[in-house]
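Researcher: Last one for today. Full complex below.
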Amino acid sequence: MNKYNPPRMNPSSLRSRFATRFLRTLSKINAQKPTSSSSPTEIFRRYRRIKAAADKSMAYSVRSRRTWSRAMLWKLRTRPCGRRSVKTSTIIKSREARKTRHEKQNKNTTTTTTTTTGEDGVVFGVEADELRELVPGGEAMDLYNLLDETAHYIKCLTTQVQVMKKIADFYSP
Amino acid sequence: MSSRRSGGSRISDDQIADLVSKLQQLIPELRGRRSNKASASKVLQETCNYIRNLHREVEDLSDRLSQLLASTDTDTDQAAILRSLLM
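Model: Here's the assembly. Have a good evening.
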């Protein structure tokens, strides 16, 4: 596998990879319909699975070429859509919390060194933290990578929304 | 401008500014601005809002799909959907 990241993503190939995967998963979810497929609980459960399928399909279509997709895949794997093992999730959460706290301490120093040079320097830090929470894996990124990953993440999210919209329109009466 | 950087080197303002303007182009709110340079904090702020909106759209669409799928068979439609999507 070549490690080279093309500077621009070809929207149609990402779109087709995502669409194919997502549709396949939708079929699987649909095939497991219980008899009371229209009860609110069932619909909610299906909503959760569809949302997870959409995020997962996108992350898999990007594979591990991006930090955010790696982070998302890791997150999705340790949190299966049905049962969640309490023990593992609490262990992972505490490990994550410790890591994030540790990273944050480092990040604070890194952020201040890179931002003191710009006139927006101080404000950068605050907004960047907010962005870090929104982008998967953002807590561990330095500012440069955060901005880079965010741009790619946004492109993928818009593709995801476009495809899901088309599918929903297709199935609308 | 070379985009190569070694791991330990300090990231230049220019590189950051480049990425910020790249982000600005992606956000509909800020794309049509005559002044092509919005402040960095504004760009980041709008980026956060935009991402939150996209997340919400994904949730709404998942919700819509979960209701629509209650009464359909998706297997046969896949080819048709793909064709209309990729045309």
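The first helix of chain B runs from residue 13 to 26. Chain B has four helices and no strands.
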